[in-house]
Automatic annotation (TrEMBL):
PANTHER family from the UniProt entry: HTH-TYPE TRANSCRIPTIONAL REGULATOR BETI, HTH-TYPE TRANSCRIPTIONAL REGULATOR RUTR
Record's protein name: AcrR family transcriptional regulator
Domain HTH tetR-type as annotated: residue spans: 11-71
Gene3D superfamilies recorded: Homeodomain-like (1.10.10.60), Tetracycline Repressor, domain 2 (1.10.357.10)
UniProt keyword annotations, A-Z: DNA-binding, Transcription, Transcription regulation
Length: 211
């Protein structure tokens, strides 16, 4: 079997396990389903499940690595002349337009499953903190003075704003509002939130233009 075919098979197996787990979680609730039951339903060994998903929470929140890195990556990739705030606002609105799952867009059943699970809500809090840390590191890498606390303070403000908007998307989704309506409400919330940050952060971490 070629390396390409092996990788394709691994991706298929991973997706099949994830889909099976999600179906069981939605039917019975996250806390009630065991790894052994997921393995049996997916027709794989229990060790296969844990090899692909070391934590049970990863089966429900399986894009956690992209979620954690997202804000830092947007700042790192910002355009010349663009501030960190402007880049994050731009990317948030683009993600909102495409109804990105990383903003919280899902189904009402999935959103309620997250809200009803103490384990998953705790995992989300952990991911929020990791995302803030990653953003702080990206800003610190460009800070002029060693030991400058500003990047940490700015990261806390920006990450908290994204967290509040994510929570609003999840709450509206769980309440059964459709994606178009959610996007309209959250677009206005994001305008308010980013406008509140504008006076302090409009000129912070502006990428230099090429000379």
């Amino acid at each position: 079997m070629s390396a390409h075919l092996r990788e394709h098979k691994k991706r298929q197996t991973r997706q099949a396990i994830s889909d099976t787990a999600t179906r069981l979680f939605l039917d019975r609730g996250f806390e009630a389903v065991t790894i052994a039951e997921i393995a049996a339903a997916a027709q794989v060994a229990k060790m296969t499940v844990t090899n692909y998903f070391p934590r049970k929470e990863d089966l429900a929140l399986d894009v956690h690595e992209v979620f954690v890195a997202g804000l830092a990556r947007t700042v790192a990739d910002r355009e010349p002349g663009e501030s960190a705030l402007a880049a994050l606002r731009r990317e948030f609105l683009a993600a909102l337009e495409r109804r990105d799952a990383l903003l919280g867009f899902s189904s009402p059943r999935f959103a309620r499953m997250i809200a009803d699970s103490p384990t998953l809500t705790a995992r989300l809090r952990d991911l929020y903190e990791q995302r803030e840390d990653a953003l702080a590191q990206a800003l610190t890498a460009e800070a002029a003075a060693p030991g400058d606390f500003t990047p940490r303070a700015v990261a806390a403000l920006l990450a908290a704003t994204h967290r509040a908007l994510f929570q609003q998307v999840m709450e509206l989704t769980a309440a059964g509002r459709d994606h178009k309506e959610i996007a309209a409400v959250v677009a206005e919330s994001s305008r308010l939130a980013f406008d509140l940050l504008e006076p302090s952060l409009a000129d912070y971490a502006v990428r230099a233009r090429p000379s």
